[in-house]
Design a protein that fits this description.
The chain is an alpha+beta fold. The chain has helices at 2-28, 228-262; strands at 38-44, 47-51, 67-70, 73-80, 87-89, 96-99, 104-108, 113-117, 123-124, 130-131, 138-139, 149-153, 158-162, 170-174, 176-179, 187-190, 193-195, 204-207, 215-218, 220-222. The chain is built from 2 helices and 20 strands. The strands form 9 sheets. A 3-stranded antiparallel β-sheet has the order 8-7-11, with no helix packed on it.
């Protein structure tokens, strides 16, 4: 039926528009530290069941196949692709990359809610507290004394430095890492931060390099895992699908116009 076909084509246009938006966001964040690309996932809408397979037709016979008309497509969700990005050397003592699974913990305002991120481009506040580029304190809190030199962050997260009056390294603390049973269930809130949800499960906190958590690499940052070629291919596919659905709308419109003229 033409009117039903119009509805189906409209859902196709909306789905491909959402897909293009996801692709555009991936490409826009190609230079964002530790950004993880998203993928739009689709599912069919409910079917209009006109005839059930096996239903009796006439006499002693039954329909061998059913008659089900689809009503279109919907965006089921967006999946975050957790593949590791390339680790790039920066030489900055407070740049830390996670080589493997896991997340840094950050205290977010207001109320001190804990957020999670893989972006390790850290710096120091005026009082020596380790903070993110947005100014939020890394958890557990770590403070570097004034005048500290030769700051070292080991693969397991242990932080040490040569402090004034000491010739040997002083232990300043340890960066612990959070892991999740289902990291894809974390909720993205912007600024490279994620929040725990019921789907992700509670954060499991521990040392880097233990129980499947990645190790820390000082003086490095993780790049975005967006692949330009893959995104361009996805973009072309989405564009073609959008064009086909647009042609379907035009075709159905012409059918309706011809039907009206005939009547």
């Amino acid at each position: 039926m033409p009117t039903s076909a119009l509805h189906v084509a409209r859902t196709g246009l909306e789905a491909q528009d959402a897909r293009m938006r996801v692709i555009a966001n991936n490409l826009a964040n190609i230079g964002t530290t530790a950004f993880k690309r998203d993928r739009a996932d689709f599912a069919t809408l409910a079917y209009q069941e006109q005839r059930v397979a096996g239903q009796q037709s006439t006499g002693q016979t039954a329909y061998a196949v059913g008659l089900n008309l689809g009503t279109g497509v919907q965006v089921q969700g967006t999946s975050r692709i957790e593949a590791q990005g390339t680790l790039n050397t920066t030489g900055n003592a407070f740049d830390v990359a996670l080589d493997g699974p896991g997340y840094f913990q950050v205290e977010l305002p207001p109320g001190g809610q804990v957020g999670f991120t893989r972006a390790g481009n850290f710096t120091l506040s005026a009082d020596g507290t380790l903070i993110t580029s947005q100014g939020y304190a890394v958890q557990p809190a770590l403070q570097v004394p004034a005048g500290a030199q030769s700051i070292a962050i080991s693969p397991d997260g242990t932080v040490s430095a040569i402090t004034p009056g000491n010739s040997e390294p002083t232990l300043l603390g340890q960066l612990s890492i959070a892991s999740f049973v289902n990291p894809a269930g974390l909720r993205a809130i912007g600024d490279n931060f994620l929040l725990e949800t019921a789907a992700s499960g509670p954060a499991e906190i521990g040392a880097a390099g233990e129980n499947g958590r990645g190790q820390l690499r000082q003086g490095m940052l993780e790049a975005s895992n967006v692949n330009v070629v893959e995104e361009l291919v996805e973009m072309i596919e989405a564009q073609r699908a959008y064009e086909i659905n647009s042609k379907m709308v035009s075709a159905v419109d012409e059918m309706l116009r011809n039907a009206n003229q005939t009547l």
